[in-house]
Amino acid sequence: MSMNLLLMGLPGAGKGTQAEFIVQKYGIPHISTGDIFRAAMKNKTPMGVKAQQYIDKGELVPDDVTCGIVEDRLKQPDTDKGYLLDGFPRNIDQAKSLEDMTRKMGKELDAVINIEVDPKVLVDRLSGRFICKNCGATYHKLYKKPIVDGTCDVCGAHVFYQRSDDKPETVKNRLKVNEKSNAPLIDFYKDRGILHSVDGDRDIADVSKDIDKILSNLN
C-alpha cells in the first residue's frame, strides 16, 4: 500500500527532524517545495523557467506555476509507493489543486500530520540563537550555551549579537503570519477526515513514536 502524506507545523515545530524519521522508516521520498523549485529551475523545466522569470523580477511565483512544479514532481515514478509533502500547499487554492491533481494520478493524500507546539514555546526556540561577534560561533540560550557564561568556547571573546531574523519580535510576526495561513488548511483537512495532530512540545523520540502509531494504523 502507498503512503501519501503531508507534514504541517509552524516554524520551529520540528518538521525537518520528523520528516527525516518518516523518510527513513517508510522509504518514501521527501518532497520539499524549496528543493523541487531549485531543481526545476536548475534543470530548466518549462515550469522551472516560468518560476525563474517571476523570481528574477522579485515577484511571488503564482499558484498555477507552483502547482505545476509540484505536479511534475508527483508524476515521477519514485512517488508511486508514496511521498511526504512539506511546504505545500500554502493556501486553500493550492490545497484544492493538489486534491485535483492527485485524484487524477491516483495518488491522493492518505494523512496530514500536523505537529502542534505552543507559539510561546516556538518563540523561545527560534529566538534563542546568538552569535560570537569575533569568530561567528553559534549558540542557543536553551540548547547550546557557552561553557563559561558570556565567553565564546571557540575564541574566548565576550561580545555576542543576535541576527535581526532571530529577534523575538521578528519571530513572533513570522509565527503569526504562518498561523494565519495554516488555520484554513487545518480546517480543510479536518473536513476531509485525514488530519492527525501530534503534540510537538515533547522529546523528539516521543513525537516520532506518536507519528509512527498514526502511520502504522493507515495500513
Automatic annotation (TrEMBL):
Q: Locate the residues binding ATP.
A: 12-17, 129, 138-139, 202
One GO cellular component assignment for this chain's record is: cytoplasm
Q: In which pathway does it act?
A: Purine metabolism; AMP biosynthesis via salvage pathway; AMP from ADP: step 1/1
> Could you tell me what reaction this enzyme catalyses?
AMP + ATP = 2 ADP
State the protein's purpose. Answer: Catalyzes the reversible transfer of the terminal phosphate group between ATP and AMP. Plays an important role in cellular energy homeostasis and in adenine nucleotide metabolism.
**Binding partners and assembly:** Monomer.
Residues binding Zn(2+): 132, 135, 152, 155
Protein family membership: Belongs to the adenylate kinase family.
Where is this gene product found?
Cytoplasm
Q: Name one Pfam family in it.
A: ADK_lid
Molecular functions per Gene Ontology: AMP kinase activity; ATP binding; zinc ion binding
Protein name per UniProt: Adenylate kinase
Provide a GO biological process annotation: AMP salvage
Binding sites annotated in the UniProt record for AMP: 33, 38, 59-61, 87-90, 94, 163, 174
Adenylate kinase active site lid domain ranges (all copies): 129-165
InterPro entries the record matches = Adenyl_kin_sub, Adenylat/UMP-CMP_kin, Adenylat_kinase_CS, Adenylate_kinase_lid-dom, P-loop_NTPase
Spans traversing the lipid bilayer: none
Q: What is its EC number?
A: 2.7.4.3
| CDD domains named in the record | ADK (cd01428)
Domain comment, as recorded? Consists of three domains, a large central CORE domain and two small peripheral domains, NMPbind and LID, which undergo movements during catalysis. The LID domain closes over the site of phosphoryl transfer upon ATP binding. Assembling and dissambling the active center during each catalytic cycle provides an effective means to prevent ATP hydrolysis. Some bacteria have evolved a zinc-coordinating structure that stabilizes the LID domain.
**Main subcellular localisation:** cytoplasm
What keywords would UniProt list here?
Answer: ATP-binding, Cytoplasm, Kinase, Metal-binding, Nucleotide biosynthesis, Nucleotide-binding, Transferase, Zinc
